[in-house]
Amino acid sequence: MVKLTEQNREQYAESILQALNSEELQQFRQLFLELHPQDQHDFFLELEESQREKVYEYLSPEEFAEIFQELELEEQKDIIEELDQTYAQDMFGEMSTDDVADFLGEVPESKAETVLEGLEDDDAKDIRELLSYEEETAGAIMTKEFMNIPADAALRDVIELLRQEGPDAETIYYLYVVNAKQELAGVVSLRDLITSDPNKKVEEVMSTRVVSVNTGDDQEDVANLIKKYDFLAVPVVTTNNTLVGIITVDDIIDVIEEEATEDIGEFVASRGATDVNLTSFTAAKKRAPWIIMLMFFGLITAGVIGQFEETLERIVLLAVFIPLIMDSAGNTGTQSLAVMVRSLATGTFEKKGMFNTVRREFGTGLFLGLFCAITLMILIPIVYRDVMLAFIVGLSLFLTLSIATIVGAVVPVLINKLKLDPAIASGPFITTINDVLGLMIYFSIATALLQYL
């Protein structure tokens, strides 16, 4: 297998492309199939439709299945329209059931049913089972291609079984042991299997301390569990402990990417609109509700300023520092929000506890406020020649940043307590709240000390 480097990537790709365009079947297959599957995927995406049609002709459905599985969903939808129906059906038959289920879950039900009817009964049954689970649960992302072994089997028989069924399994580094009722009873690592006496029974070498997940568990919880234990795979069981599948670390990497993308969308108030493949209209439609909601929050900010119109009329110079107060409050609150959401996601919040975590953020806010206040109390008298103005702005910023960190830390915790994703306490949402609080603090202090200005 060839793994392309930056130095030889273009040259090697040019050789494959030349063989494809010259219709040199054997030369193309020899060069192309030597590539790493991911490099095959990258090369395929650069082809024009006429060139892709030759690829379908030169590669078997089994070989092309490796490429199709690596494509993004939208790319799969486009490519499937180019494939001959028989070719596509044979390709689905060669794919992992979980990858087929991921694709069929996103296409019209009638089309999915047509594909299922053309598959072998066992594969179709497994895919229907995967499609029956709620999205973003362990059951929905597990694979059915795994090996389970009986507890009373001899190790030598298990090794022979590996030779026969191992090539079709998602992974064989862990072998899960079941009893007569197909309940999860233990686990045997490949190392234990190879290094133990082949005459021993599986139950003599297996570990009964098995960490598993339930079909209904959230995919993010599964990701955290695999990260915690450094697993390559984790078994999935039903409520009665029946082993029904496994989740491998490569699927969890996809989950982590998906969850991170979702959190980023929440942070910037554009959930569902971070995909660059969306049209401008679709992206705008998804972002519009957030923007409109934040626009109304902006009216609240304007209302706060309006309440202190008299103060502003008397000391117009106060308006100069409104952006400074608002931006500093929003930025500090967003920083605390990011820290807290990350803490909740990684589990460190539970270890430290709410009091210690919030206290730490409040302390951070105090120091940030102090640093900024001192800086302004030095600069403002130099620029504006007004010590009292410097005191008002500095004190306001000190209090604002201290409170902003509390808001940024507490709001996501409260949302998490409501069993919601804490990331929905988005940056713009927290920023608007802190803007309002910052302005109220600023103008309240300015109004109280107006006589000294």
How would you sum up this structure, described in words?
It is built from 23 helices and 6 strands. The mean pLDDT is 85. α21 (354-384) runs antiparallel to α22 (387-417). The longest helix has 31 residues, at 354-384. β2 and β3 (184-189) form a beta hairpin. It has helices spanning 6-21, 25-33, 37-45, 49-58, 61-70, 73-80, 85-94, 97-104, 109-117, 121-132, 138-141, 155-165, 190-195, 202-205, 219-229, 249-267, 280-307, 309-314, 322-346, 348-352, 354-384, 387-417, 427-448; strands at 148-150, 174-178, 184-189, 213-214, 233-237, 243-248. The chain has 3 domains: 6-137, MgtE N-terminal domain-like (MgtE N-terminal fold, Alpha Horseshoe); 148-262, CBS-domain (Roll); 280-452, Tetracycline Repressor, domain 2, CATH 1.10.357.20. It is found in: Cell membrane; Membrane. Residues 142-204, 206-262 form the CBS domain.
Counted beta strands: 6
> Under CATH, the topology of the largest domain is which?
Tetracycline Repressor, domain 2
Low-confidence regions: none
Please identify, by name, the CATH architecture of the largest domain: Orthogonal Bundle
The topology string of helices and strands comes to HHHHHHHHHHHEHEEHHEHEEHHHHHHHH
The CATH superfamily of the largest domain turns out to be SLC41 divalent cation transporters, integral membrane domain
How much of the residues is beta strand, in percent? 5-15%
Backbone CA Rg? 30 Å
Outline type: elongated
